[in-house]
Batch of 3 targets.
Target 1
Amino acid sequence: MKFIETLLNGLSMGSTYAMIALGYTMVYGIAKMLNFAHGDIIMVGGYMIFLSMTAVGNPVLGLAAAVIFCVVLGITIEKIAYKPLRGASPLAVLITAIGVSYLLQSSAQMIFGSAPKMVIIADLGNLEFAGLKVPVYTLVTLGCSVVIMLALNLFVKYTKIGRAMIAVSEDKGAAQLMGINVNGIITVTFAIGSALAAFAGFFMLMKSPSLTNTLGAMPGIKAFTAAVIGGIGSIPGAMVGGILIGVVEAISLTVPAIAAYTDAIEFLILIVILLVRPTGILGKKRREKV
């Protein structure tokens, strides 16, 4: 029973990592850039939830406010910081993304201070069945994450915008010749990724109510690791990588001898998988056109 509880916890944690990883992998797959400020969008969403909960005390309204604000922020960052660098070198874009990350963290610290804020979203209690004791927030996180990720998959596969996103990720030049607004698709991608980050922040605060300006730093790095493990640019790969990292983390934390080395184990898995399969679990090799 203890193992099942740990597994459910790992799946819940992994689904949260997967949502964050989807933001990384979608932006990379379409814009061919690594948005290292993505983890800090989680933190911004957390503070929006904090402000909304303080004002009205309704977690649903808090989540809605966080999603709207994060979407607007993601689009603004893309327009101001990344769009002017479309033709720039990958290194310039990477440095800009790191700069945006520190800008968001420093701005949050100046506005809210460095002391942690407590955000009590809801006390959902535990669910007990046949000797199995599972926190309700674990099931809520897992269920909502599955629904969100399935909806995203359906959106990408069966909508006009989703098919345009696939076309842009395959060949940006050809997509533009077919009449697809590449800049608009990239903007939509940033908006979706930012919305997913807001959901991830909500689920993270359900588990741990402490909010600081570095809330999204380590989860962002782990989610990026998950995206690379699954195959950067692959939506199913981001999901697989996120679940794998979450389950490994949950199991490692229950073993006292290795609990302190949990982060190291996760990054070791990344190294091993890249040595065996450099493109990631579900990643595909792409031919570079000359």
Target 2
Amino acid sequence: MEILYRSTRGSRDIASASAAMLNGLAPDGGLYVPDHLPHLEKSWTELAQMSYHGIAYEVMRPFLADFSEKELKACIRAAYDKKFDTPQIAPITKADGRYFLELWHGSTMAFKDMALSILPYLMANAAHKQNEEREIVILTATSGDTGKAALAGFADVPGTKIIVFYPKDGVSPIQEKQMVTQEGENVLVVGINGNFDDAQNGVKALFTDEAERERMNRNMLRFSSANSINIGRLVPQIAYYIAAYAGMLREGEIGNGYKINICVPTGNFGNILAAYYAQWMGLPVNRLICASNSNKVLFDFFKTGTYDRNREFITTQSPSMDILISSNLERLIYHATGDSAEKCGALMHQLSRDGRYDISREMAKELTYFSAGYATEEECGKEIRTLFEDTGYLIDTHTAVGAAVHRKYVKETGDDTATLIASTASPYKFPRAVWNALQGRALADRTQDAEDEQLAEQLSKMSGMPLPEPFLQLKRARVRHKGVCEKDGMRAEVERFLGL
């Protein structure tokens, strides 16, 4: 049966995959969710013999029912090509008895490439299917990695413009340089004096502003999103968990049907939600471990049943996780209510009004297969150093959150189930913090006079891990975007760029 998409908040509109992708958000401000979740049609024995491309097709096909086989396979081929520095696309490295799923071998050295490499191709097909004559404006907030990956994907794509907002002082120097050097005539990058939640709230406000939508329509423009609120971003992420299990089976690391744990460093909840959907498709999962940094709003939620964003925002050295409003959690809440848009919408209204909500005992029972933990900056630094000293394997600050949380989870529970840890960024995206960790310093220590590029070169010599080509290209790149605005100035920046 064909999968269609509904809003988490009660709109009765039902959208096809291509319509949901183009809309980004549902008209009522909710997120699109599939009206049912499919099961894998191929056996694990069959999947274990497939390439990443073949597995991606098997996973994505039922979710994108209005795409033909030819169209979807063409999108997959175009996305997962030589932009990735390994034919495996998402290889697994075993270190310290754990399996690190390396999702950072694409052109921007972060896991966002896994979905944002394919989204522009999916979007172009979706626009054709919907007979869309308006220019598509990709409007995105980023905590560091989504922005660059989206910019790289949509730069100079005909029929599109892309606008990215990021917290000016809330990303790493490498992340910022990746964004502000982006070329393309259809590209705008703006820093805001605020945090990621401010940027995300501003983007959502523009999406749901009826007057702004009418103004865009009169000018033959329409908004869409490249954030993981877009179902076209979320669906490709499911594929790498299925591919990882198939790879572990192929290499003899696990037996067919053996349940694994999956530990995901989590901010906006999209990456671990993809693992949740993979589980529903048939991935044998024992526990989904949600790993938070010091902004532990998700840890507190899973421990208490209360989601409360009314707390201090902490800037850490894992900036892509510095989030207090985890947008994709809304999809999990919807499913926990028994797919009740009315109940989910009421909780989201309460979050908007009060900054918090409490789930019922019945809902909590639906989340019992999740575990949660958090890691401090000190614990992350120790994890980077210990793992490197013991195994020679180098990880970034976000992956360190996942690895540190998993280490504490095993100590607390004694659960020695084989565990897949989502490694979400190259260590060379955060060279100063990684260098500090190896020296036993605080991650944020700025006393080292060397530039980040020099520290990355020193890390490469220490680890024997070559510098990625995108990093080398960045050294020669010219800054093209210098705009900064207040958080209430985002609308003006958008309208100026679009000529409204």
Target 3
Amino acid sequence: MKFTYKAYKELLMLLIDQGYKFCNYHDYQNYNMSVIIRHDIDMDIEKAVRMAQIEAEMGVTSTYFVLVTSNFYNIFSKENQAMLRKLHELGHEVGLHFDEAKYDGETDLVRAMEQEAVLLEQCIGRPVWSVSMHRPSKKTLEADYLIKGGQIVNSYGTEFFRNHKYVSDSRRNWRENVHAIIRSGKYARLHVLTHPFWYDVEEKTAREALKSFCESRTGTCYGWMQDNVRDLDEILRRSELCL
């Protein structure tokens, strides 16, 4: 499968044609054939919004997981907060993407998840009902954490990581043939993870995608400086940057 928006639309159409109902972590049991589409927003919220718009146009809903400890974006900046709220406006759920590597071995990870969920709730103005792990350790995968007394669903819990057929495009690589899995009819419960960062109008290699992202961030950074440094072009011109 290519990492283009066209290819993603085709994936969604295949799921529809095969009779799957698009669900979240709370209502999948209402359907005989269900698919939970999950997106981890590791680096780029704009890409997530683009994916969300495509889904909304097709009548599809999914869950977007936000990394509140990311070095790449600030969830409380005006622009990012607006985009995260846009995901809800488009009909999608917003959950917490939790990075256990941020904490030392003495930290109560469940408590840390609950605290981060509160921060995200403050940002989006809505309750957070689900959490996904960012690069989970073996220990975390096996922990089956009970978060907020079970009110917040752990997407890596046994039900969704073992009892559903789980397939992912992690590191821009579908380790299994996702189309064949969908067509097989073997699985009544699908759990599909994508990372919007890798998708674009045209197919790009991982190197090209990463290079493009870094270059675009240079331009974005310059724009932020213009908002904060008077007469910036007299000190540093945009043309002097490697864009």
